Amino acid sequence: VKLRSIFIIAILYNLMEIGLPIMFNFLAKRSRKKFYEKAKHSEDPNVKLMLRIEKNMERGVYAFKDIDGTYWDYLELMRQLGYILLFGLSFPPCLILAFINNVLEHQVDKAKLVYFKRRPLPLGGSSIGVWRI
Description:
The protein is an all-alpha fold. It has one domain. It is 70% helix and 0% strand. It is built from five helices and no strands. Helix 1 runs parallel beside helix 5 and helix 4 packs antiparallel against helix 5. The chain is flat.
């Protein structure tokens, strides 16, 4: 019962993770609707470019620190793998629930990157770290 509730909470968290940005974007669009209506009818290409840039800048930041990036997204998937490894034999349907949750998590993360968050800036590293030969 507890394991089932963990998986159900994970799925509900994914729904919340996608639902909150949709709600915030809807409220932001509604509050700036008049400005966008005036700018849409302009023929000047610079105005259209600025409108596109402003819409992109209204999106939230994907990572607040340079080290964050997709760390938390991968951590959710690894935690799910840990649950499967530890409790898979005691509750066999958790394998199906975990698969559904991982597919849902992948789609939520994709939607976050493409539609709701600003694209992260690609930063080069000084080396490849521990993989250096």
